[in-house]
Amino acid sequence: MKLITYIFFNGILAASLYFGFFENVEGAKNIAYFMAWMNFITSLVYLNDEAIKEFVKKKHSRTMPVFIDVTLDIVVTAVFLWFGAFMTATVYVLHVIFSNAGWSKIEEGIKNKCK
């Protein structure tokens, strides 16, 4: 189920980026902006140590390998930068930093818990 959700939301983001920025469909561009900002807002949970402990307790794991996530993040950031959406690109990079730091803490906590 997590994989389907990942593919669904990232597919919408990718399609919105393509149609919004390359095909100049204004509504799709707005969806891409909205999704980037919502990614940032939801990644703020990784700054909360209690949330990290809860993720460790439930043994949450990444849905996709890191290289796929990072590749998608680089492409999304590059599209925003290429088309001059500097504020959204900055916010998206902060999302990437927060979420990767959070996943690092979660994975470390699960490793320590298993010892």
Main attributes?
mainly alpha; 115 residues; 82% helix
Would you give an account of this structure?
With 115 residues, the chain is mainly alpha-helical. It has one domain. 82% of the residues lie in helices and 0% in strands. It contains five helices and no strands. It has helices at residues 2-22, 26-43, 49-57, 66-82, 86-114. The protein is elongated. 17% of the residues are buried.
Biggest pleated sheet: none
**Helix-and-strand structural type:** mainly alpha
Care to count the β-strands? 0
Mean pLDDT comes to 93
Order of helices and strands: HHHHH
Beta percentage is: under 5%
Approximate helicity band: over 70%
Count of domains: 1
Please, how many helices? 5
Beginning-to-end CA distance, first to last residue: 29 Å
Unreliable stretches (pLDDT < 50, length at least 5) are: none
Report the radius of gyration as a whole number of Å. 15 Å
Large-scale geometry: elongated
Record the SSE blueprint.
Elements: H1 2-22, H2 26-43, H3 49-57, H4 66-82, H5 86-114
Helix pairs in contact: 1-2, 1-4, 2-5, 3-5, 4-5
Provide a short characterization of the protein structure.
The protein has 5 helices and no strands. With about 120 residues, it is mainly α.
